């Protein structure tokens, strides 16, 4: 029951330290196996599985609870073919004109180029749009969303975790600029493409780059006591 201030009680289960560690260790071991995949099986993924993953993404926190995202699930082969054509036109310009030598050098271990067969080979694309504002059609006005980029980034993180939990693979693909996605999907003018995510099972001959992740010491800094600069 909602209180007079619009709030409701929140009493999540408090775990003992042993269970906390067990759950997080298991979660880390599972998510550490997640990799970006560019070689997909054409086997179709049940639509309800993708919808549930999107529902999980939709639990993400967002600025003022505006939930400024739209997830478009694209399985139509003809539309995916159009998207691939448009993507490769933009990617060719990026690889041949826009990217710096340093950027191209950094991409070299991944073996990527402007050819993107995974857009058609993957059985589904989840294309995420960020909603920069909302419209009140009746009043003929619009009102802002807040921290849209950050909110969508958190939601996509949950989406990737959900897809991995279901045993699926995905790729975060960001052709730039991405305006053509809104045009091809006939999205409203308050939406901007954020990510194109091919989803499916890896093909039988799928490979991924032999890369490593940064260690905990490289990504975590502790401030457990008085900061040296604050001492007098």
Q: Helices, strands, pairings?
A:
Layout: H1 17-31, H2 47-57, E1 69-74, H3 77-98, H4 101-107, H5 118-121, E2 124-131, E3 133-136, E4 141-144, H6 148-165, E5 169-170, H7 179-184, E6 191-200, H8 216-219
Antiparallel strand pairs: 1-2, 2-6, 3-4, 5-6
Helix pairs in contact: 2-6
Unreliable spans: none
CATH topology of the domain at 51-202: NADH Oxidase
Q: Give the biggest beta sheet.
A: 4 strands, antiparallel
Average predicted confidence as pLDDT? 92
Helix percent reads: 25-40%
Give the name of the CATH architecture of the domain at 51-202: 3-Layer(aba) Sandwich
SS-based structural class?
A: alpha+beta
- Write out the CATH superfamily name of the domain at 51-202: NADH Oxidase
User: What global shape is seen?
Assistant: globular
Secondary structure tally: strands: 6
Count of alpha/pi helices: 8
